[in-house]
Fold each of these.
Amino acid sequence: MIWYPYVQMKHMPTPYNIVDAEGVYLMTDDGRRLIDSVSSWWSVIHGYKHPAINAALKAQVDRFSHVMLGGLSHEPARALSRRLQEWLPGDLDYCFYADSGSVGVEVALKMALQYFVNRGETQRTCVLALEHAYHGDTFKAMEVGDDEDYHFILTAYGAAAKAHVRHIPTTIPALERAFAEHHAELNAFIVEPLLQGAGGMRMYGIDFLRRARELCDQYGALLIFDEVATGFGRTGHRFVADLVQPDILVLGKALTGGYIGHAVTVANHKVYEGFYDDNPAHALMHGPTFMGNALACTAALESIRLFEEGDYLSRIARIERIMRREMEGFADPRVREVRIMGGCLCVEVVDPAVLQGYQEFAAARGVFARPFLCCLYAMVPYVITESELVCITDTMKAWFAEGRASA
Ligand SMILES: *Cc1c(COP(=O)(O)O)cnc(C)c1O
């Protein structure tokens, strides 16, 4: 049987059984049609069963689905690398593939550490990260993360578990203090730029990232943007990396339009050159079995084409406008704050108990939702129509208006 994620199996409600999906809709085996307000963990940006991505995948399946990148190469991986090289800002040109965002983050952190080890700067063993950060569920990703659900690691391993990470809030004074005090031991500063997703849909300003870029340059640390969640328009920008350039950029989730798990860790020239020499020990020793999977690369190429040709940034701006219009004036004593950025809407409640029962309430109104912590949120597919979007926001408001939310 399936062991499901993030849930006490003993008390897990029966999950909705999905038998088909199309556009923004999930079809259940009991005949329900639900708008997916979560985009399958924020990844299905073009909706389900997209004809263009389906066709591209079918054609690739008839050639080959997968060959490894160890000693072999293939056109889908080369074409995606060329596309990313020209599409991503600045000199983010070197693409290292992995099968999930967590592994992409592991690769980025390994790159940053080894970059300095290769230069003989072996004292730079520490990573600066943000409070409430989420970077994935593998061990090093959990270590740089700061999600309460993972603090059992601290209990299990004691303080030593965090010996190589420092966490700061998203304020410029805290940032400046961290660099002033710890710059000699820092190899990288890793952030989810502008929008911290799984840590509670927290939003902060671009000035913080501009200052981070300056300080990384001043003290020689690398800046890593984990855009696994924020990439491909979620913040309203194509990538936050378009505004402030990191040295290493990690993309995942929406990279393949949500079709197949895949991620890419993109390094700039400076980082790549820190590995490129005659010493075999300076090579990047990493190689996920399914890196550069041909189906994943094919889906990603098609997804990027749709994103560009479909003028997605205008679509996302429209989604943001509608969400702002619909949530304007909404207030409730049980609500701490309503936050909106690009294709993300979060209603943060004071007490998580307020959200108990919301999933069933929403499903009865034709919406699939999955609140977490104190967050009632929507991360919609960009192909959503106005009436579908309004259905999601109406459902959120109705939860409070109809007194269904417990006090
Ligand atoms: C989801 C996520 C990850 C992990 O990606 P997986 O594909 O689930 O391993 C890493 N970083 C951020 C910011 C994420 O939102």
Amino acid sequence: MTQRRVPSLAHWGAFNALVEDGRVVGCEPFAGDPAPSPMLTAIPEMVHSPLRIARPAVREGWREGKPRTGNDRFHEISWDEALDLVAGELTRVRRDFGNTAIFGGSYGWSSAGRLHHARTLTRRFLFQGGGCVDQVGNYSWGAAQFLLPHVIGTYQPVAGRVTDWPSIVKHTKLVLSFGGLALKNGQVSSGGAGAHVLEQWLRRAKAAGIRFVVVSPLKADAPDFLDADWIAIRPNTDTALMLGMAHTLIAEGRHDEAFLARYCVGFDRFKRYVTGADDNTPKDAAWASRITGVAAETIRALARDAAGTTSLVTVAWSLQRAHRGEQPYWASIALAAMLGGIGTPGGGFAFGHGSLNGVGVPRAELPGPEIATPPNPAAASIPVARIADMLLNPGADYEFNGRRAVYPDIRLVYWAGGNPFHHHQDLNRLRCAWQKPETVIVHESWWTPTARHADIVLPATTTLERNDVGGSSRDPYIFAMHQAIASVGEARSDFDIFHALAKRLGYAEAFAEGRDEMAWCRAIYERVVAGAARKNVALPSFDDFWRQGFVELPPPDEDFVLFADFRRDPELHPLNTPSGRIEIASEKIGSFGYDDCPEHPAWMEPSEWLGAADAAQWPLHLITHQPVDRLHSQLDPARLSRGHKIKDRETVRLNPDDAARRGIKDHDIVRVFNARGACLAAAVIDTGVMPSVAVMPTGAWFDPGDADGALERHGNPNVLTRDIGTSRLTQGPSALSALVDIALWDGDLPPTEAFTPPTIVRAGTVPA
Ligand SMILES: Nc1nc2c(c(=O)[nH]1)N[C@H]1C(S)=C(S)[C@@H](COP(=O)(O)OP(=O)(O)OC[C@H]3O[C@@H](n4cnc5c(=O)[nH]c(N)nc54)[C@H](O)[C@@H]3O)O[C@H]1N2
Ligand SMILES: Nc1nc2c(c(=O)[nH]1)N[C@H]1C(S)=C(S)[C@@H](COP(=O)(O)OP(=O)(O)OC[C@H]3O[C@@H](n4cnc5c(=O)[nH]c(N)nc54)[C@H](O)[C@@H]3O)O[C@H]1N2
Ligand SMILES: [Mo]
């Protein structure tokens, strides 16, 4: 039998699809990838999965306004009927309620291909049709995005470049990592990882003699070969640890006065707080020890070690995905400023070196592939994670980054390329909120929990069923993504779906700009070529690129050091803050008068943490981190992810003492619960989890069972997390602040139905 090898790309890696007889039978990793992700093995099963949505479908009970249970029956209809229905709903809602009654933020990772990036297309389509309510920020680093501009004038250190590995390997002596550098996270880059290089760089850094200190509740956050000092910290208390270190630096005169005077504002204000001049509470190492559970002597030693050498403070994105998540980020900048290394090779602060493949990897500043999003004429948006608040409280006020705004009244939700029934916190609350709109339209390839909670479901092709161009701004490649197989079932690409809708609504020309799929691929690539040419980099023609399957961009000429220009000359290269300096205290933030985000970094107790009064009732802090074997909820039905489950349940790791106290043994099924919800999970006993902490990966498909959803059966931890903004300043998600308890499950084990598609009525009609 002949086998074809077809170049393609996923967020977890580039590959050749192996195609036989119109089916994808395997994936061969890209030859330039030194450490391909095992997630590639999941692709063939997913493409041909029985969970694929075959035809457009409408939920039974939609017209009657029956609640969306996630277990409703669906009636298949033809594409023509489906497109007429969707166009009709958009027209009706726009006419009767206006564009701000349509929610189209459509948050989610979608595909690595940039033409068919579903979220981009959704917003493009809705904006061109008059606009919608959009979502700003993201779940990854939403708190940082709106805090950092006040402090350092930009959020580029989370969105773009940080001091890179070559600079670290050459110059850093001590890497102080909060939240760790877990290799599991390095499998992924938004837009596609061509070369997986996190392990390589960590090994080089280790070989260069760098000492690693990892502060985290979980030992596995540092790979063993780093031989890192593990400082186990109570979750959500890193700010206190940083303040304790700052106190030691001040008390022992080890802070860099000259740097603080020349490059920063607000240090004196911060110093008064740290020393307790105003509140009689010195934030010294002993104080920090009581909060963090880290010995005072360890905190003092860490401060001395960091001050005595070239140290880099790098903070995982997870720390700001928690209640009061602004504070550890701001405090880490204050700490790095006191250490004086900002803007010098291998020194200063950084974020996310272990959060995603490509962070800190040298990459020339050249444009990446993308298509443009036009402006939103409705000029309406919410902070990304405030979706349930919005749906539940139309007309209510909220505060965000110095502004007051009002939640719109949403009648129609349009989602493509995201899975809110994975990504949002407190899913039982989201389920209530989700009953509010009249119509929910979703494009999906699989019967995900979100598709099952929709009224009109349109089947989308996967990457391998269409042509595209992809690539990440953190990776030196651009990839041609060739169509490998025909559409599975009657699936259509998101582009074709929106194009057909735009035709019905009278703006097909604006949407497609007269281009078909291949013309778009060409245009996207040629934009990259033109951008590169402006920087004197010549790239091959589109035809050569397409034939070759990829192009490699040349490496940058120099190591990248964050804020090197500013360090060299702060007058010539001021920061984009009100003072032009690093704002250790911010008058602007102070002027907002938020007691949940004052004018300088401060320890404020998160709503849920091990020191809270509620910890008496809910004695375990639940950490929900990124899964090792899938991308969020993507690929969860594949063998790789299922193989790590126990009795079909997601795992929960806990410390041997916590398990023993509850009579729980390794691999026992347990109920993880709090006042918001409960889920089943399988216990894994792990000495590398600190006491009073439980760890669950995110992404097990939500399986609420019966309508009341009292017991999620598969191990989706977002039934337990709290849906509350980090603060009024940034309104980021607080996923990592949740207290729970765990009990042995001694009842019958209900089967999980997460991967059983809903009941489908074939050749149906739109149900009355
Ligand atoms: N508790 C807790 N929750 C979290 C986090 C946490 O740390 N803790 N992390 C958060 C973070 S950082 C993130 S980024 C979010 C991720 O949240 P999401 O990005 O929503 O998660 P994904 O599972 O990647 O969802 C993408 C969806 O798009 C679909 N899709 C893929 N390609 C296509 C396509 O071409 N067309 C269409 N129409 N659909 C497509 C996939 O099938 C999948 O259902 O989760 C957040 N949620
Ligand atoms: N394999 C895989 N990789 C991924 C993803 C995926 O879905 N799968 N998702 C990608 C995405 S979208 C993102 S945004 C990034 C996220 O990158 P991160 O946010 O860095 O990743 P997490 O795994 O959520 O958290 C990293 C570690 O932080 C630690 N941690 C949690 N709370 C605290 C705390 O209060 N203090 C300290 N010191 N440590 C704490 C946890 O032990 C956890 O293992 O990951 C990316 N990488
Ligand atoms: Mo993310």
